Amino acid sequence: MKKTILSLEKINCGYDGKSVIHDINLSVYEGDFISIIGPNGSGKTTLLKTISSELKPVNGEIRLYEKILSKYDSKERSSMISFVFTLNNTLPDYTIEQFLELHTFPHDKPFTFKKNERVVTEAVEICGITHSLSSSIKNLSSGEFQLVQLAGAYIQNSRFIILDEPVSHLDPKNAKLIISLLKKLNANGTTIITVLHDLNIALNLPGKIAGLKKGKVFFYDYPEHIYNKKLTDKLYDIEFTYYQKNKKYYCLNNY
User: Fold this and answer.
1) How far apart, in whole angstroms, are the C-alpha atoms of residue 240 and residue 238?
2) pLDDT the model gives residue 214
């Protein structure tokens, strides 16, 4: 039986006293790959921020490895779960090496590259980073920087990674590269939760899809069931065209 990593029970959370997500119940098991989809404003990012402890639930309980999430300090939490959120352009002019070293903080003091050289080198190889580690992150494309962020998350904790829209601003080639990497990590045992806007990507990933609508879990099911029941029509309140090719599912918006 798979081990429960994360469990959410009757979670309500939001901003300024107003709930955005309501009565969220979700269990995440070791090795899961969960894609979260839904309309803008449905609570996807709020859900991730609640899991990351950036937001405190108004009601409900979150457990990480069977312990109440709020009972962990930030260092303990970071050693068990990694988050990849969209970063703005206000980051200092770090080298790739310095940026990756920041992610060793749950386990060791940062900026001690020699001591962490093995794990950093492993992450660089797994994530396919081809630039010199002395290169500035300011000179990386969006796709290249996303690879560096994934490498950082892997260094921090290779067992459980949560991502918020990791391919939203990438061209198709780089998006495919990131998704292929996530599938590879998952196949090697990493538990993945990711928010996605591209339905065709979500429908062809392993594991289940959680559809959020108006702050609630509208469905939580496998891609083939969502496709066969045309649940995305009801999720987004529009009519899609559905078709299959080479055992893959496609859901096209009728513009």
Assistant:
1) 7
2) 95
